[in-house]
Amino acid sequence: ELCPINLSGWFPSRSVFVPYDAKLQPSWEAFADSLVGRFANVDTYFAIRDFRLPKIILDTLLPAIRKLNLINLGITRTKSGNDGLRFVSDIIQESPSLDTIQFYGEEIDDDDAAVAFATAIRRHPSLKNVCLVDCSFSESVLAMILGGCRQIKLDTLDLTGNSIGGSAASLVSNYIASKAVVGTLSLGSNSIT
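RE: above sequence
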């Protein structure tokens, strides 16, 4: 049975983005400690969204999340960007049971972060679903991500809503032409013609 951990700053009545407050750092540390104590021996889905996650929080959470038997990881609208992608890359490397990565609504503009992500994907033994939705990234970042995905068999590669168009569309075309193995390639809400 998959145990969900869903930390959300979004409430049904209104959308609330929870900013970072240094005074709450001890609470983040206590949360990280409780993850290990409670969820270390169960299959886990970990999702966090609409919380501002600066590097200090990512660094606090990383050791705890590495100890989970993580099946699915979701990072959504945390304004963590490149640091968030490095965080996800570290988790991919340390979580052999990981099946699905969901990274939504983040800005990625650092080639080094993209290389780390692509390398982690390429080396992972069982990753099946990579979802990078509503992210903003350059053509060079897209090329690196597709290069990492090209090396493995994926059930799903979701690149919905990333403003892929123009010359970036040729990167996707080349990915398909390379005989990459992917069950579903989602490219909705892009500018591909």
